[in-house]
């Protein structure tokens, strides 16, 4: 018997619920439902017109219904009378296969057939910027190497503390907050968990950071590359596979502490990194971050070649500690559910095909890349990534033809829309279109 949201509302003094979902472009959409109406909504869902969102539907389609997952309930830390709920989309009595949370749940089911669960943590970098998005908010944050700058961090103490206190309150286990490598850029870390929980928290984290920044008179952006000369917003993920309480990636006998299963999983991600970029780097602006020249701080901290290493941040995959790896490809515009689903799908292909990632590289890839011309490169712009996805037999097999067709169709429409007004050129300034369409991603 699932939790009764009507009773929970009474106990916790919740007056309203946000029944929310994320569409294919990662936009968070909701209905605000009074607690007195929640029983019906919990059973049958809140109705939405799918065509009005980034899902491949028509205006003639019947309503789709967002059925909330009571386990995802979060009382807004800054307004406890509102309860936030992640939901799964249903239409005509069936789950909507192209809805990102359903896509992730389907991948989790595939992994469960092998008695495995994925645990993951995400590192969501963001900038605090001026209201109009033209610059960073703190005029004194101008060091050329601003990473871990204590003064710039502490000038934002009130906001950072409120976000971190909220995470403590919600039981996420936050453990550190810092100023990142770009002026105006921050990162906050909380404990890893089952990948569905992490994905729901990732969605909520972005909403919370944006909301609390507004409350403090600021604006937060997760845009991949809001400023040409500064390091962009990454969204690195730390990944391990578990069977009950055993980490199946851990092997102390290996020099990097990874099992054969982990290398196969990692090999699958390396094989499919090009098509995966369509999910992990989903915006036009994303391609200013990967394959980028060094920034003012000296390094872009983003990958360009498909390679892996031990504890070395110049590669797409880093193995910082035994029993897990860090995938550094994703940026702040990635869809939280497709991030996790993409990793599982590619990793499963790796397991099933016993993919061998080869030897790890120990070089500084930012300076030595010319010696590694044989390595596959990441896509140079969004068109290339979408084309790779369209052609990917493996991801079509994992996600289903319709899901990939819908995603490719919607992304190509967006690219056409951009090309009517602008031209993408990494050497020229970030366009107004990119800012208008990505600052609030
Ligand atoms: Mg970081």
Describe this structure in words.
The protein has 441 residues and is an alpha+beta fold. The chain has two domains: 12-95, Glutamine synthetase, N-terminal domain (Ubiquitin-like (UB roll)); 107-438, 2-Layer Sandwich (Creatine Kinase, Chain A, domain 2). It contains 14 helices and 18 strands. Strand 10 (174-179) and strand 11 (185-190) form a beta hairpin. The protein is globular, with a radius of gyration of 21 Å. The two termini are 36 Å apart. Bound molecules: magnesium ion.
Keywords:
alpha+beta; 7-stranded mixed β-sheet; 18 strands; 35% helix
**What characteristic shape results from the CA principal axes?**
globular
Any idea of the CATH topology of the largest domain? Creatine Kinase, Chain A, domain 2
Q: Which residues sit in consecutive blocks of at least 5 with pLDDT less than 50?
A: none
Mean pLDDT, to the nearest integer, reads 96
N/C terminus separation? 36 Å
CATH hierarchy, class of the largest domain: Alpha Beta
Total of domains: 2
Say what oligomer this is: single chain
Present as ligands are: magnesium ion
Q: What's the CATH architecture name of the largest domain?
A: 2-Layer Sandwich
Helical content class: 25-40%
By CATH, the superfamily of the largest domain comes out as Glutamine synthetase/guanido kinase, catalytic domain
Largest sheet: 7 strands, mixed
Radius of gyration: 21 Å
Per DSSP, the total helix count is: 14
């Amino acid at each position: 018997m699932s939790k009764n949201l009507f009773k929970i509302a009474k106990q916790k003094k919740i007056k309203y619920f946000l029944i929310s979902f994320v569409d294919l472009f990662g936009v968070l959409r909701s209905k605000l439902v009074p607690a007195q109406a929640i029983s019906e909504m919990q059973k049958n869902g809140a109705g939405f017109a799918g065509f009005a969102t980034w899902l491949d539907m028509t205006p003639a389609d019947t309503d789709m219904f967002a059925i909330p997952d009571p386990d995802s309930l979060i009382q807004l830390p800054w307004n406890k009378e509102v309860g936030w709920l992640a939901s799964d989309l249903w239409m005509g009595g069936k789950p909507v296969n192209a809805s990102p949370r359903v896509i992730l749940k389907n991948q989790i089911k595939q992994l469960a057939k092998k008695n495995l669960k994925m645990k993951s943590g995400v590192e969501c970098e963001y900038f605090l910027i001026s209201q109009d998005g033209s610059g960073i908010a703190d005029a004194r944050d101008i060091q050329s190497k601003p990473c871990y700058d204590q003064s710039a961090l502490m000038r934002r103490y009130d906001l950072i503390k409120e976000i971190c206190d909220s995470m403590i309150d919600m039981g996420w286990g936050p453990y550190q907050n810092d100023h990142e490598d770009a002026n105006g850029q921050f990162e906050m870390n909380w404990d890893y968990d089952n990948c569905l929980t992490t994905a729901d928290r990732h969605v909520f984290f972005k909403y919370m950071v944006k909301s609390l920044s507004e409350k403090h008179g600021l604006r937060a952006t997760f845009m991949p590359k809001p400023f040409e000369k500064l390091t962009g917003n990454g969204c690195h993920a730390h990944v391990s596979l578990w069977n009950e309480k055993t980490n199946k990636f851990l092997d102390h006998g290996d020099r990097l502490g990874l099992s054969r299963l982990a290398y196969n999983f990692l090999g699958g991600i390396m094989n499919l990194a090009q098509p995966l970029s369509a999910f992990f780097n989903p915006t036009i602006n994303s391609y200013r971050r990967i394959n980028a020249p060094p920034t003012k701080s000296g390094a872009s901290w983003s990958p360009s070649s498909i390679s892996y290493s031990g504890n070395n941040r110049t590669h797409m995959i880093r193995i910082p500690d035994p029993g897990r790896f860090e995938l550094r490809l994703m940026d702040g515009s990635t869809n939280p559910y497709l991030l996790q689903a993409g990793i599982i799908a590619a990793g499963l292909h790796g397991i099933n095909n016993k993919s061998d990632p080869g030897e790890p590289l120990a070089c500084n890839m930012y300076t030595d890349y010319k010696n590694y011309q044989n390595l596959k490169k990441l896509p140079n712009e969004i068109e290339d990534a979408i084309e790779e996805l369209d052609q990917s037999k493996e991801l079509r097999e994992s996600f289903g033809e319709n899901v990939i067709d819908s995603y490719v169709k919607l992304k190509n429409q967006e690219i056409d829309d951009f090309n009517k007004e602008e031209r993408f050129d990494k050497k020229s300034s970030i366009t107004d279109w990119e800012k208008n369409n990505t600052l609030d991603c």
